[in-house]
Design a protein that fits this description.
Layout lengths: L4 E5 L5 E5 L4 E3 L5 H17 L2 E2 L1 E3 L5 E7 L5 E5 L1 E2 L5 E5 L7 H20 L4 E5 L5 H12 L3
Parallel strand pairs: 9-10
Antiparallel strand pairs: 1-2, 2-3, 4-8, 5-6, 6-7, 8-9
Helix pairs in contact: 2-3
């Protein structure tokens, strides 16, 4: 799958992605985009010395650790918890693919930053490099806002 992760196939069970930190994630019933996302997140755990911030939902699927509003609505999620407790968002070029996605991503990053500050840590982002002008705007906004 990548230099920081290994794809493992167990004929008796299922396929897994094993990250550089030894975390194994089942990819059964995951879309290709979900698999790419998990691989990115596992790579970030290796880079940061952190861990995946995932929960298993009632259907047995992995979900990001949620950040909730006062009334319990999920506002966004945390992809990785850094070695020092940082809240890390991980993504790729799709995060800035349309004006709507860019606005949604920036809103979620602001929520992540606010929640991190409230809990005495910092927010960080790791993006897979993209080559579009829209994605470059996302990078510039992230730098400007110190995510």
């Amino acid at each position: 799958m990548g230099r920081l992760g290994v794809w493992v196939h167990n004929a008796d069970c299922c396929d897994f992605i094993v990250g550089g930190d030894g975390t194994a994630v089942s990819i059964k019933n995951m879309s290709q985009q979900e698999i790419i996302g998990i691989q990115r997140e596992l790579n970030v755990t290796h880079i940061t010395g952190g861990k995946l911030a995932k929960i298993i939902n009632k259907n047995g699927h992995l979900e990001d650790m949620p950040i909730r509003s006062v009334d319990g609505r999920i506002l966004t999620g945390i992809d990785v918890i850094g070695k020092n407790g940082e809240y890390i968002s991980v993504g790729g070029p799709a995060k800035g693919s349309t004006p709507e996605k860019l606005a949604e991503t920036l809103r979620k990053l602001q929520i992540l930053k606010s929640e991190a500050e409230k809990n005495g840590t910092k927010a960080m982002v790791y993006y897979e490099r993209g080559n579009s002008e829209k994605f470059q705007r996302l990078i510039e906004e992230s730098k400007k806002n110190s995510w």
